[in-house]
Specification:
- It is built from 5 helices and no strands.
- It is an all-alpha fold.
- The protein has one domain (12-125): DksA, coiled-coil domain (Four Helix Bundle (Hemerythrin (Met), subunit A), Up-down Bundle).
- The protein is flat and about 55 Å long.
Length: 135
Amino acid sequence: MKLQAVQQDLTPGQYAVLEAALLQRQGSLEQELQTQLGEQGRVEHAREQLLQDADGEHAHATDREVDLARSDANLEALRQVNAALQRLRDAEFGLCSDCGAAIAFERLNANPEVLRCITCQAAKEHGRSGTAHRL
């Protein structure tokens, strides 16, 4: 059960810091993906990697799996950053998606993509369901 959200008291300067961090991370991820994939999309890149494995060498297969896993991780990170940038413009940015409590600026500054307060994140990681704490 989601509680009524409280207003996050981030200052305009704190929003600017978080936006700058997200934009920097977005640029880094896009550059890394561009370097890794070149002008190809992920599907074309995967196909090229498979063609390079035509000689059947096990080392190529392992390299391909690592390469594809890295691009998947970068694409997911980019999706999370883009979602955080979208949420930044929303009145509920910085509020826990589980309990509605304000997420500490220090936590947001360390990872602006976070969706939960520390208490709810810990509960999620330990497999407990439901709201971790009440306001």
